[in-house]
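Researcher: Quick sanity check before group meeting.
Model: Go ahead. Protein one:
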Amino acid sequence: MTMKMPGGGSARSRLCRLIDDSLRPYAELDAVSLSKDEEKKILLALSQVFRQVQLWTPEFDSDTDNDSVLILDCACGCSSGSSPHLEETQCLTKIVADLVVLLTVQSKYVQHLASNVLVVVSEFVAASGSSWDSFIHTLCACLDVAITIKLTFDSAHWPTGADDFNCGSSSFVFSLKQKLKDANWSAAASILQVLRTILKHFNPEDDIQLFTSYFESVNSCLSNMPWDLFTQIFVTPNADAQKSSGADAVFHRSVFLGNFIQFLCSLVEQSGAVEAIFDPSKKRPDLSITISLVPKLLNWCLGNQGDIVDKGISLYFRHKLLVLMIRLSFHTSLDYYLLVSWLKLMHGYFGELLRRPITSFESGQDDCLEGSPFVLSVSDAEEKELCSLHLQRLAIFLFLRCSLSLISLMCGTDEKCPCATRNLCFPYEPTEKLDCCGRKKGLLELYNWLQGHLPVDTFVDHKTYLQKCVDFALSFLQLYIHEDDLLFKVLLQLFNVRFSAEEWFQNQKGDSHYVKGDMLSHVSNIFNPVHLFHLFLSELHYDHQVLLDYLISKDTGTSCAEYLLRCLRTICDSWHIFVEFSVDGQFINQSSCKKRKVMWDGSMVRAEKSLTPVKNDRTLLLLEKECNEESNCGCNDHQTIGQPYKDAKECLLSLKTSVESLHQKNLFPYNPKVLLKRLRRFQELCSKDEQSDF
């Protein structure tokens, strides 16, 4: 049964009395010299408060006296002569301040539990229907003051917007300064974690007013932050200066930076919900501030600071910074100068990941452990390799997104500019400085990156060149095949590469001089969407059930459907390329443990759920020889050419049958009519092709 506080009063009155009675004895404790016995008492008191607030929250009745005043004898010390709203505000600010003080205690257990209490208090206040503004503004004010204390070493510099938090006059700031005199980076990190947890608990559709107040308070806090002082603290001329401050200080600063980047990632992630609330014609302050902070964050985390932090923390920084930049790229409109700036940052901070060879992955089984608790069973070297592969995927994807976004920025291209011509050929060396427009800049970035992995000048004849393009595309696809969320993002992104099907089809039998002189041709040959789709299906072993799983998945359904729709349209417009695709007699290495088929001119060797992946092509060549001897089929180039088409046709037509069946039974999670329409068009072209063979 819920405990009732004596004397009655409003919901905030009960909450204020509970926290004041439970935590008052520990408000003035020395945060540095906390004994074990005192730590246990604080943990017990926090646990009791946590459970009680959890019990109270669901019992709110929206028709009850939510606006009633605080009781006159409230033990928290709020003035009884003030207005009800002011008394309520004073009560909440004291609750938040007292709990935030416990975040300065040198105990990770106390900090963790105090953070949890702040989260449940936020749920309590939100459910009560009033005073949410005061609560969230006070929490942001505590973050502002805690960071400023640490940055200025208790100097006289205080946030200029401190009085804008509806928390009273400057006396509140002075009182908060006294309470948070022992604030450290760990306390600031905990406040950020509380704010992030509160944000993740929101349902924007139901809590529009709460959501709006939250972002207004956060924007005000971020806008008032003295960011220049961060650079003075986090970046020094040499690592020895930071080492002298102690390993613990460096660690706490790293934890704060990690939580801060994580918090920014969550803010950006909620952009879709925020855009539905705020005026879309106005720039959102949180996004503008975050974009401006990207170069600073890279410098703070991966500059001199990155030379002395733990390697695991450094990997985390790299991961989160890439995630932050990728999310920003989806939720903001990046202009030419920002894209060029980001590409420079990519080369400066993630250049080794971009230059790392994209080799053929003989087995993806180890890679599928990424993000799993079973990863603990692998060695340190294997775990490092997994992290490196993940970072490589993120870095290459962001690089491609920036480069291709530049290519799509057609505005400002002069008709006299070489970029306005049909082909982008280099009259001299490809490394020539060409900054005439975004399209040229983006293509040059892509071309130079590809030259590091697949130099076009090393191929003597065009036939070898095309084979190498397919080999590289396969290795590129295998890099992403085990990370579904990135797989379809990168495949969809590559559709921004201009691809003229008929022009490519006519020139693929030409000499290599054409390709060497045309960087657009080189880029589109490697990332040919028809070829990539063939390779994608082959990596799935032409199993339409895998495609169906992608389509009905909550995580990949939308992106997979969009990818299939765009591929089917391209295929129908480039039918000859789709039908005549081949790997020039080379068999694609089936490296997964899933069911796979190896076919040669009507004869089939089927491997079901193989436990040992094929390590090289020697086994396949032996099987091919045995097949040829038994069937006397003579697997020449002409006969091999049609096999990928046949396998792909069987897969897509089987997918069509399955989707139609589920749709008829109302079991498909969304309306697949557009997809079915494209698949029927594909089926019609297949039928016409079969009729032309007779």
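Researcher: Fine. The other one?
Model: Protein two, sequence then structure:
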Amino acid sequence: MPVKKVIIYLVIILLIVEIIFAFPFFKNLEYKAQDMLFRMRGKLPVSDKIVIIGIDDATFSALNETWPFPRDYHSKLIENLNKAGAKQIIFDIEFTEKTLPESDLRLAETANRYQNVIFAGKVLTSQRPGEPSQIIPPISPITEYNLPWGIVNMEADPDGFIRKYTLFENFDQTNLYSIGIASLANLRVYQNNWAEHIKVNSKALHLTDKSIPLADKNKAIINFRGPAKTYPAFSYANILDDSTFFMPGYQGAELDEFYEIRDSGVLKDKIVLVGATIDELHDKFPTPYGGEWTSGVEIQANFLDMVLTGNYLQKLNPWLFLLIEVVLLIGLWYLFKVLKPQFSALALLGLLIILFIINLLLFNKAGIICPIAQTIILLILIYVASILNHYWVTMKEKRFIRNAFQQYLAPELVNQLLANPKSLKFGGSLQEITVLFSDIRNFTTYSEKHSPQETVNILHEYLTEMVKIIINNHGILDKFVGDEIMALYGTPVPLPNHSFDACKTALQMRECLSRLQEKWQNEGIEPFEIGIGINTGMAVVGNLGSEQIFDYTAIGDTINLGARLEGLNKEYNTFNHIIISEFTYEKVKNLVNANYIEEVKVKGKNIAVKIYELVSLK
């Protein structure tokens, strides 16, 4: 196939893949395929710097409260966490609605006193075109103290799974950063102007000594360390439970659990994330690890852990992936072209396994996510395209063979040829064959004595019958040379005894001619006589024509001798006017009756050849 056509086919396949993966179904298929990488990798060690304080079932049972809790509880939580040595406290809880003024103020004052608290707000994106988005900041006492806060917007992929972390939202040409970014920016130094030190370009978000690679303009792919409940967590109630705080749910028991936690040092110098882990507060999401949904606060923990360890995930460069696709397509196209379909399928399966292993290694060792489903479908499409092309080429080849041979080859031989088209070696090959030449005696004189129409009609009738006999005996009509017939046996499909088939043909041609002669005499038409020569030997056989004209024929001394033997019938008064060479006789001597004539030298041959007169079949 021309290179230009191959390129067109490959471009079409690439376009098809790009188009179908623009649809949600195939996007989700790609997401699910990439999720397997997380599950096959398994859990990663988590940072010992991160702890979660969960608002869980035990918290609601101990406090005997409904949500939202009084702000004084959160103030108390900040105090106790700082007593336990927490380095930073991040609230994955939105304090965006006012409650009791004194409680709201106390919360802000407590956070301002310790200078290590990050609060949460959010951006309400517009649902209708033309409507502006809205910023929902924390309550005014918090913003008046200019305490750091970040947004908690979390955008799921089309299938509802959380795989990326929103680093910022652009609002009125200003970036509003997430609580994770606010945490990192204030981790070493708690500062009011922290957002001014963050730089964003097309590839990464830069803050302090961290560079977070971007995906989808404002997000980062989260390198989840494991499924839900991977990080150490304490109950919100446990931190509040000291000697100064009454727990209604404990029914008068004084457990004072906070002191044991404080004295154990498990919170010392830790980043503490506070958030809901109870199902009823609907802050849980599916993640690549599957299974139980992961709480929003633990997703925040996964993001912080990823940045602190520098263990990022990035998508493979799309231009590099395109180059890989092109190389794969070209290589597989030519590989599948030379392999049989069943071997192509095995090669495809093996390649898919190898590519998945490479993807898993790149994911585990380099944090690179390569398209998986897209690659699989791409390779399947090139396999299907190669199969269709193979089928189309085969059908074209078979149509060519059928058209080329059905007029002068037996149907069963045509079918054998279609089953094994490689037997038609372009340019010819050396084969043992038998050639039969038949010629009308004195046909020039005959045609001069009859009108052209009479000559054409009788020749047509004669040749039609002779060709039927040739085809019925598994011969191939090579050509007509005026009134001369040249037939080949044993090609293009091998025959058990092509010499015998040629001899049968010659005898049947004589019988047929006798019937035709009787018929012509009855019709008042002058009959004619024929001579036949048969020879067996090696000859160059194949498509010996030009690029414009297909000509399946044979050449060589074997063919020349066959033609000379036919001419010898004029010199010998043979019974059937059929002369065969010694080479043919050796193949059929046990099957036919033949009389030895003599040893002759024919034109073009230096060595004498024994010739025989073919009489009948035994």
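Researcher: One line on it for the slide.
Model: The chain has three domains: 3-21+316-397, 50-314, 409-617.
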